[in-house]
Design brief:
Structural class: alpha+beta
Organism: Nocardioides zeae
Helix content: 25-40%
Strand content: 35-45%
Number of domains: 1
CATH topology: Aminopeptidase
Largest sheet: 7 strands, mixed
Distance between the termini: 30 Å
Number of strands: 7
CATH architecture: 3-Layer(aba) Sandwich
Protein name: Ribosomal protein S18 acetylase RimI-like enzyme
Order of helices and strands: EHHEEEHEHEE
Strand order of the largest sheet: 1-2-3-4-5-7-6
Radius of gyration: 15 Å
Mean pLDDT: 95
């Protein structure tokens, strides 16, 4: 397995596969945080493609088992908008590899995750992200913001 670029706009089948993966992954987060109002959980295929994210993913035997969707400001900063892993592939290092791939390409990365999503918060902490605070994005729905900046440049 290795990290490869994915372009859901180029293939309806790829977009459908990413949507299935996204829904499965965010369904687990919804349980962890006790709230299913995670916007990507309710996206359809057209909205996923229209989000205009740059995607990378990992496959196993041709099937996407993890992916990240990123907004890049063109100046070295990236907003990690989505990190999704097939629940059957949790705790196998896929999320960490995808995050490290992103860190290797950018000088700064920001990300938000559900405040009660302990596995994601642990992953970002282990990857060197600093917790920048918590905010309520919808009534009763809290996220934690993180940032990572490459040092030594």
């Amino acid at each position: 397995m290795g990290v490869e670029p994915l372009d859901p706009a180029s293939s309806p089948a790829l977009a459908a596969a990413l949507l299935r993966l996204q829904r499965a992954s965010y369904a687990v987060e919804a349980v962890l945080i006790g709230d299913d109002r995670i916007p990507p959980l309710h996206e359809d295929q057209d909205a996923l493609v229209a989000a205009d994210l740059r995607w990378w993913g990992e496959r196993d035997d041709g099937r996407i088992v993890g992916a990240i969707g990123v907004r890049d400001d063109g100046g070295g900063e990236a907003d990690l908008d989505r990190l999704v892993v097939d629940p059957a592939w949790f705790r196998r290092g896929i999320g960490g590899r995808l995050v490290r791939h992103l860190q290797a390409q950018h000088r700064r990365v920001v990300v938000s995750t559900g405040r009660s999503n302990a596995p994601a918060r642990l992953l970002y902490g282990r990857a060197g992200f600093a917790h920048r605070g918590d905010r309520e994005v919808l009534p009763g729905l809290w996220v934690s913001d993180y940032a990572w900046t490459r040092t030594g440049d």
